[in-house]
User: What shape does this take?
Amino acid sequence: MSSLLKITDLHVSVDEKPILKGVSLEIRQGEIHALMGPNGSGKSTLAYTLVGHPKYEITSGTIEVDGAPLNDLDPCERARLGLFLAFQYPVTIPGVKVADFLRHAVTNIRNPARKEGEGLIPMRDFRKELKERMEGLGMDVEFARRYLNEGFSGGEKKRMEILQLAMLQPKFAILDETDSGLDSDAVRVVSEGLQKLAGPQMGVLIITHHERLLEYNVPQFTHVMLAGKIVETGDASLAHELHNHGYATVRQRHPTEAAEEQEREKTAPAATAVR
Amino acid sequence: MLTADSIPSTSFDAAAFEQFLATRTEPAWVTDLRRGAYETYRELVATELDPEEWKRVDIRAFRPEKFAIPVASQSAAAFGTLLADRAEFAGVVSHVDGNCSRATLAEKWTKQGVLFGNLSEMVQLHGDVLRPHLLTSAVKPETDRFSAWHAAFWTGGTVLYVPRNVQVTEPLYSLIGLAAEGAADFSHTLIILEEGASATLLEETSSASPKSTGLHVGAVELLLAPRSNLRYVQLQNWNDKVWHFAHQAGRVDRDASLQWTVAGLGAKLAHIHQDVFLDGKGAAAEVNGVTFATERQVISYYTQQTHNAPNTRSDLLYKDVVRDRARCIWRGMIKVAKDAQKTDGYQRNDSLLMSEECRADAIPGLEIEADDVRCTHGATCGRVDEEQLFYCMCRGLKRSEAMHMIVEGFFQRVYDRIPVEIVRETLGQAVERKLGIGGE
Assistant: This one.
């Protein structure tokens, strides 16, 4: 049976300011969903909320995996249940080698009951797997010895996120603008990488402004966010339309949300994701 | 602050000193040195400690009279050591409660004139070699009450002497152990490298029992003749009932190079006065510090990099992690003399705070009299970054595991500078153990 990530009427505030105002979404393993929308519409907020960032407060609504609520779980517990976020701005962990970090991560995800200090997956197996995955993504295996994201270029960081996705094989992967800030070669590498990884065992939510990622990973569903709500859901052609024509027609079709969006921009600068 | 009337010393008063001297069989110059130092000690113990060095270190609870120099040591005491079994050492010197319990050196090095052994014996056998250096130029008895106290009462310690152009390619090992309850250790480490010589000495301190109280009033003297090369490591790993006071100084002559690593893991309160003197043109010193203070530990350093000659280089990096209600203090200074043009001096201290109640003070400083120098310093202090923790947790690490990984990563930068692999490994594992992880 495939797993289901179910988001029901989710309201989220940051510093007591409401950002998400009733988001509902169902993602099954094996499905690809695209989430689009103008800056500040709440896409990244949804991503961070799903994986449990402490700054994002769920004021009402639920997030469930196969009926089990995640609302009160910390990010580690959610990760061990199979949620993964590819960060828009991956964090640098100084002095921690990629290989050491990933060996801990992989062990924990595959053995969710593991406690700190308990055995890690055997070094030999891990190295072999890591090497294969890195080669598959066209990464220099030397990266395994570097400190996580320290001194990495934008493209290298995004590739590192995809490598982690490959190693952790989550049930649900959320990609937060993984294609932003990359040159077209890097976008291709990341897109192809995701294409190889996504399959019947992975539900994918792709947050993007661009189409390239979606060319390789054609979504069955495209959702459009405006002012903290999903205002439209369609298929791949909706993504195509938005890409070509922008959000003007969406705003016309949803004047209430468009007005809210305008109001918000007047009172505060666009909400930006935590960096 | 210690005041004279807070030390109704019984174990270190004049009668005790005479008694102590009677137990020693030493050349007259050593006895004279001790007598002079004892006079200085009596004066200095009544004098206020330098506030610049001591104002952040509270030793009001320290009671010297609770400690005494044991007459005979329990040489059979077993120590949990971090380094002893990790490598084949060219020689080993062990002290328990200030008395030497073991001294070995491989024959191939003795044949080349290398001396490695116990200071008490060495002053008798090789006084001519030691006399010019022992407590004369690196650590001076008159510096403060602790240096004077040490100079009056030292009982033993490790001596390494390497003759001209001899390269001791295998590391040497020295253990300073405390075993008896209330024991005072006055071990002295003296390393003399003649011109062009090189050596590596790994030294650690250890307590036989986690419970026994102890005192260490130590001194380390590193004397590097021109073109010599020394790697010296001291890993302070006492139990948390030991008071540790030490003067540690290196003098680096022309084109010589010193790589010095200090690690502070143990002690109830530790204060180290660490001096590096760049005395000859082209001298270089790299100083690495790894400190991890937990519970109610206080670990304090007063470091000085003194450039006395042109074209000298010093590079100090201290990293400390503080947890629980512990405290770390670092006061650093780079001094550049008028003639020391083209000096390149660097000092940096980074502190990572793991709890709300812990505290770290880092005060860098520069005193520069030359006009053509490059001296930089820096200090950072911060808590474990929440976004780093979040990122790690998103990859399935529990908050505590993520915290530990970040702490280990924090130290990694200084491990990367340590040239001896077993020291890097040892420190990594010691930190893990203190974090409460690993150790199988």
Observations:
- Residues 1-9 of chain B have pLDDT under 50 and may be disordered.
- Chain B has ten helices and 21 strands.
